[in-house]
Design a protein that fits this description.
- The complex is a heterodimer of chains A (259) and B (301).
- Chain A has a domain of 175 residues: P-loop containing nucleotide triphosphate hydrolases (Rossmann fold, 3-Layer(aba) Sandwich).
- Chain A has 10 helices and 11 strands.
- In chain A, α3 packs across α4, α3 runs parallel beside α6 and α6 runs parallel beside α7.
- Chain A is globular and about 55 Å long.
- Chain B has one domain: MetI-like (MetI-like fold), CATH 1.10.3720.
- Chain B has a two-stranded antiparallel sheet.
- The longest helix of chain B has 39 residues.
- Chain B starts with a helix and ends with a helix.
- The chains are: A alpha/beta (259), B mainly alpha (301).
Chain lengths: 259, 301
């Protein structure tokens, strides 16, 4: 597999021979990927190629699925988290996730953000206030909602809801943010807004984003991995992968000949 | 199909019209029925005050119920009805919500295949059977445990608890399972444990539905007559304890209706009790609608 690995000193997250099986279905085959700190990595490929499955391995979200078997190593800050006695709650505190459909809880804007810190034991009101404000500021939502923190989050627009979900994940101060097609349910304007937000967040977080939108990968990702039928076909700096793909399957996909 | 009909099929427009008229007529009959019933109960129930000249206050706040002797105080029954309703709902709520959580969140396979059908079996059991079981099991148990006769509000509430369980449980299950899966994924991705997720996210979102389930259960408990009448003791005095014989609006109604002469004060007062029952069911339905519409505006804002 043509690979351009990230420098060793900047590895935030790495997988080694990661395989996923749903019963007999071999959904992910020997994925070896390295994600560099403070970079955005895009995972592209047709539906059902294993990229979402891969993403959900990284914060151990696949564990709850019955008959799902995950083999291989997932190294977070150098230690394997794909072990039976790993504390999944702790892992998810450090590796946040944003989903395809905005899923704010049936709570106020404030309580949506404060939910996770509270679950992890932060009770101090001033500290929570501070966290809520800083998370909303980071997600570029503070100005729009600062006056109505007590109103229901479901009243926000789709784009605002998705930024709220990003803020909610940031409230745990994670190192890594996993984004599963975060813009596919949004209109183009909200999409651009979120994209520029993600580019700004790069300074503080490592991000892995699954996207069907090739332009989006081109616009925001430093590196891009192309998945096909459960396999990582090619992984390289985004510019290189898009302009000089090594594998013909990659160039076929990028030029729209299949997938 | 007869040939005559086949030869002259109705035009689409006429067909539309026939459909519209038929369904509208059915709707009209339903509305007519409801309003006839309401009119009947209201007009009869008000006779106590308009024709017999009794005061509404004496009816609602009086504690002496002896229609033959002229006492028309309905407060003991009103209190009795509310007591059995609230108690039985209180007993049912944890069971029903717990069952709902188990069915949806903990073990859907066993829950949907075994627990849910078992709970639904309870719907099919006739009230009189519940009453008999209450007489045979609960009343002696209360008598042996707490002394006294065994009849009373507590015994009636326990029987009602089982009777309204299926309603509350299946509506709560629906409410919990209609919480979007995205909420569960979101909570888990934030490092919440399953219990934190259920407690803070799922139940919070299902709350309006669960409240609706409880209110509908209350409506059912409030209106249940036969089983309650068999166990509550039917003593029309102000209940001073949960363990002494008491009475409810429904139990006094079923006991007395056949023994009074239409048009007499004794009969009119019974209709007034029915009016109170009717008014309370309307209140329950109103509450359900309020919960529903509040929920809708919050979601649609």
């Amino acid at each position: 597999m043509p690979m351009q690995p990230a420098p060793t000193d900047r590895r935030a997250l790495q997988t080694e021979n990661l395989n996923v099986y749903y019963r007999d279905n071999h959904a992910l085959k020997d994925a070896n990927l390295i994600f560099a700190r403070n970079e955005i990595t895009a995972l592209i490929g047709a539906s059902g190629c294993g990229k979402s499955t891969f993403l959900r391995c990284l914060n151990l979200m696949n564990r709850q699925i019955p008959h799902c078997r995950i083999e291989g190593r997932i190294l977070f800050e150098g230690t394997d988290i794909n072990t039976a006695d790993e504390d999944v709650y702790k892992v998810r505190r450090h590796i946040g996730m944003v989903f395809q459909r905005p899923n704010p809880f049936y709570k106020s804007i404030y309580d949506n953000i404060a939910f996770a810190p509270r679950q992890h034991g932060i009770r101090d009101k001033a500290e929570l206030d501070e966290l809520v404000e800083s998370s909303l500021r980071q997600a570029a939502l503070w100005k729009e909602v600062s006056g109505k923190l007590d109103t229901t989050a479901l009243a926000l627009s789709g784009g605002q809801q998705q930024r709220l979900c990003i803020a909610r994940a940031l409230a745990l101060k994670p190192e890594v943010l996993l984004l599963d097609e975060p813009c596919s349910a949004l209109d183009p304007r909200s999409t651009r807004y979120i994209e520029s937000l993600l580019t700004e967040l790069k300074d503080a977080y490592t991000m892995v984003i699954v996207t069907h939108n090739l332009q989006q990968a081109w616009r925001i990702a430093d590196r891009t991995a192309f998945f096909l039928l459960g396999e990582v076909v090619e992984y390289n700096a985004t510019t290189a992968l898009f302009t000089e793909p090594v594998d013909t399957r990659t160039s076929d996909y990028l030029s729209g000949r299949f997938g | 199909m007869p040939k005559a009909l086949r030869r002259k099929p109705l035009g689409k427009r006429q067909l539309e019209l026939v459909g519209k008229i038929t369904t509208a007529a059915c709707g009209a009959v339903v509305i007519l029925l409801v309003f006839t019933i309401i009119f009947l109960v209201v007009s009869r129930g008000l006779r106590t005050f308009t024709v017999d000249g009794q005061s509404l206050w004496a009816f609602l706040s009086g504690t002496s119920w002896l229609p033959e002797g002229g006492g028309i105080g309905a407060l003991p029954m009103i209190v009795g009805s509310f007591a059995v309703t609230l108690l039985s709902t209180l007993f049912t709520a944890p069971l029903a919500i717990g069952a709902g959580i188990f069915i949806v969140e903990i073990s859907p396979r066993f829950g949907r295949r075994v627990l849910q059908p078992v709970i639904e079996l309870l719907v099919g059991i006739p009230s009189v059977v519940y009453g008999l079981i209450g007489l045979l099991v609960i009343v002696p148990f209360m008598r042996d445990t707490f002394g006294g006769t065994g009849y009373g509000i507590l015994s009636a509430s326990l029987v009602l608890m089982v009777m309204i369980l299926p309603t509350v449980a299946s509506l709560s299950t629906d409410a919990i399972s209609s919480v979007p899966d995205g909420y569960r994924l979101g909570a888990k991705s934030l490092g919440a444990t399953r219990w934190q997720m259920i407690h803070r996210v799922v139940l919070r979102s299902a709350l309006p539905g669960i409240l609706t389930a409880l209110v509908l259960g209350m409506a059912r408990a409030f209106g249940e007559a036969l089983a309650v009448q068999m166990i509550v003791g039917n003593s029309a005095v102000m209940p001073t304890s949960l363990l002494t014989p008491a009475s409810t609006l429904t139990s006094i109604l079923t006991m007395g209706m056949g023994n009074t002469v239409t048009g007499s004060l004794q009969n009119d007062v019974l209709w007034s009790l029915a009016l109170v029952l009717l008014a309370m069911s309307l209140v329950f339905i109103l509450i359900v609608h309020l919960i529903g519409s509040r929920n809708k505006t919050e979601a649609a804002q």
